[in-house]
Amino acid sequence: MADPFADRAALDANPFADPSVQGALAGSRTFEADDDTPYGHSYASTPQPKGAYETDDPYGTSGGTSGSGANARAEELRRREQELERREAELANRAENIRKHGRNNWPFFFPLIFHDIDAEIPPDSQQIMHHLYWLWLVLAGTLVVNVVACVFLITRGSDGIKDIITSCVYLPVISVLSFLLWYRPVYNGFMKEHSIFYYLYFVFCGFHLVFSLYLFLGIPSTGSCGLLNTIYSFTDESKRIVAGILGCIVTVGFAVQGLGNLWYYRQIWQHNKEQGHTFAQAKSEFAAHGAKAYFTRGSQV
Questions:
Q1: Neighbouring residues of 242: CB distance < 8 A, sequence distance ≥ 6
Q2: Are 250 and 167 in contact (CB under 8 A)?
Q3: Which of 66, 152, 246, 261 has the fewest CB atoms within 10 Å around its CB?
């Protein structure tokens, strides 16, 4: 009779003798022989060809288009730096001018007030304000030439003396009053947009327009070497040629500044209406602050 424990003893001596274990080991060896890696796939990295969209630059910054964009940005930065440098230079020059001459900068030979159209007037109104300033300069220059022209009228006698005296009075009086009574109010009007400025301008510039016509006519003994005095200088027996030539300049000067002021008077009137200013507002502002405050820049109104 066979020993039932013989197989048990054999298994105890060699645990791998079990047929089931041997079958499992045989299957494992077959799997390893077929492929060295699990699931039949190799993990070894092999070089792959670059695709159509792959580049050596991981950020895509190379190439003609990107280079042009970088150049444009650099150019824009340089332009901005130059603009900043220009502004800094302007501010430095202005600060130096204020340090030397104080805040007042006009007139340049004896500063009494601050006058800077580009700095104080809104961009939309700067052009008309520049033109009004040039018209005022034409008026002042014409008054100077008028004095010289009247000197050459002295050969007429007592009438020439009257012209000289009156023209000498016109020069400081008209130039100063025109600046204070109509130029400065409209300057403050564009700067602050208050009704009182515009109505002061309308009143006094209206008087100036009428007086400009009077000066343009150049009636003898009125202190103006305008049209009539110029005609007399060429047609008189004494033939005052120099007085006639200077009179032509005076006549043209009074005509240019008068017609120019008339043109802008109409435009400023239209601007006043568009901004909604009224005479009632002007009276209220006048009662609250008075007229003196409106002739200087320092007013808070």
A1: 152
A2: no
A3: 66
